[in-house]
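Hello, quick one for you while I still have it in my head. A protein chain has come my way and I'm curious about its shape. I'm sending you its amino acid sequence along with the C-alpha cells. I'd be grateful if you could look everything over and explain what you see. Here's the protein in full, and shout if anything looks odd to you:
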Amino acid sequence: MKSIGFPGLHRFVLALFLLLMCQPAFAEKRVALVLSNAAYQNVAPLPNPVNDGALIAAMLKDAGFDVVDFRRDLPAVETRRALRDFADRTRDAEIAVVYYAGHGIEVDGGNYLIPVDARLERDTDVYDEAFSLDRVLIAIEPAKKLRLVILDACRDNPFAKSMKRTVAAIGQGLAKVEPTSPNVLIAYSAKAGSTAADGDGKNSPFTSALAKHLTTPGLDVRRAFGYVRDDVLKSTNNRQEPFVYGSLGGEDVPLVPAPAKAAAPAASALSPQADIRRDYELALQVGNKSALNAFLAQYPDGFYASLAKLQLEKIAAEEARVAATEKARAAEQERARLAAEGAQKAEQAKAAADAKAAEQARIAAEKAKQVAQDQAAVAEQKRLAAEKALADKIAADKATAEQAPAAAPVDKAVNVAVLSTGSPQADVTKSVQTELRRVGCLTGSADGEWNAASQRSLTLFNRYAGTRLDTKVANVDTLDAIKQKSSRVCPLVCEHGTKADGDRCTRIVCGAGSFLNDDNACEKRREKKPVAKRDSDDRPARRERPEVRIPRPMASSGGRGSGGGQMVCDRGGCRPVARGCHLEFRTTAQGGPYEGGGGNVQVCN
C-alpha cells in the first residue's frame, strides 16, 4: 500500500474538512405533525387538504426533519391521541411544527379545529366535538427554540346553515390570537376574520406558497412567511392575505440552516465593509433609535455611520413633528374653549397667539421632517446604486477571469460571495402598495408598478393622515410611514343604498313605514291628509247681496198734503207718508235715497 506524504495528507484532510463544512449541520432535533381533514362525515368533503398535507409532509422530510407524522381524516378521539403522542416527541426537540388543513371555526373569540366526525348541531357542541387551538399549543410547548403552528383552515363554516344558536357568537374565519409563550408563531392562511380559498389547482394557494419558501436553507421563518404572503396576494388578486401572529427574538430562525461555507472567514477578513453593511441593514430594518445608536456605538465613523446619523435625524424630525402637532392641537382647543366660555378678551388674545405660534412651529417641524426624510432617502438611493454598480463590476471581472483562467485572482471571487445588493425597487413598491391597500387608500392590486393610480392613493393617504410624503416615488420612508398606521386611514366609500360597516359596505334596510331618501338615510313616510270633496248638493248656499229695490213715485190718492195712504220706502224700511207731506222723486244729486239713480222722498211743508 502506497503511503501518503505530508503534503498529500494535508490536502486530504483539508478536502475532508471542506466537505464536512459544506454539508448542512442538523444538530437540532426538528419534529412535525401534519393533520389533513377532507372526508367530513356530516358536511361536504373538501378537495385539497389531503393533497396539501402530503405536499407539506414531503417538504419537511426532504428538509431533514427527524420526525414527520402525517395523519389524515382523523375523528376527534384519534386527533387528541395524535396530539398527545406528538407532545412526547417535542420534549427534546428544538423546533416543533404542526400543520393543519381542514375546517376551523371561531366561537366566542376562541379557535377550534374540526375533526371529520363532528356534527355541531348547536354552537356549544364545538366545546365537546372539536379541539381548541390551545390544545395544539400545549402539544408543542416543550420545544425550545421555535414552536410553529400553520393553519390552512380559514374556510367558510359549513355547519353555519344548520347549527342552532344558543349563547355563543360564531365568527367568520378564525379569530386573532396573541400567544402568551415566547418563541411561538401561529400562521393563518388568511387574516383573522376573513376566509381563504381552496384554489383551482391540486393545492391551495397558501400551501403552494409554503412549499416554495418555508424550507429555503438559511431563510428566517418570518421572512419566509413574508414571501408566502406576497405570493398568495398575487395569486388571489389581493383577495386573500395570510397573516402571522406571535414574535421571535432578534436572531434568524430558519427551519433549514444554511450550509456552512469555508470561504466565509476569509471573505470577512478580505471585505470588512460587507459586515458593516449587513449590520447597518439590520439596524435599518429594526428602524428605531436604539438599533441605530447601537450600530453607531459599534461603527462610529465611515460611510454607513453617516447613513445611520441621517436616519436618526429623520426619526428625531418625525418625533418633533408629532410633538408640535399635538401642541398645536392642544393650543387650538384651549383657544376655542375660552372663546366658547366668553373669557376676557386678554385671555382670548393670549390663547389665540399661543395657537398661532404652535401652528407655525408645527409647520416648521413638518418642513424639517420632510427635509430630513428627503436627505435620508437620497442617501439610501445612492448607497443602493453604488452597491449595485460595484456588484456589476465584480460580476464583469469574474466573467473576464473565467475566460482567462491563468489570471483569475481569488480575491475577486471572494468579493462576489460576500457582496449583495439592496432590495429591488419593485419589492419596495409592491410593499408600499400592499400597505396602502391595508389602510384603505388603494383599491387596485399590488403589482410593483408605481403608476398614476398608486400616486393618487398616496395623495389620499397624505390628505387623511396629515403627511407630506413624495407621491412620485415609492421608497422605504414611505413604507415606514404607512406601517405606523394600525387601522384604516382613507374613509370607506359606499354606493347609495349601502353604508360603511367596519371595512365593508352593507345594505341599508329601512323599517316599516320608512324609505331611503337621496341623502342615504331612512326617512319616515308622511301621511297625506284627506282632501274634502264637496258634492254639488252639499255646497253651502252662496250669500247674495240683498236686492234693493228703488221705489218709484206712487200715485197720490189723497192729494197733496194728505198722505193719501202712500208709503215711503228707504233703507230703513217702508212707512206711511205723514199727514201734510207728499212724495217727490229725486235723483242722487238732488238728495235721493239710493245711489245709482234716485227714489221717492217725503217732502213736508
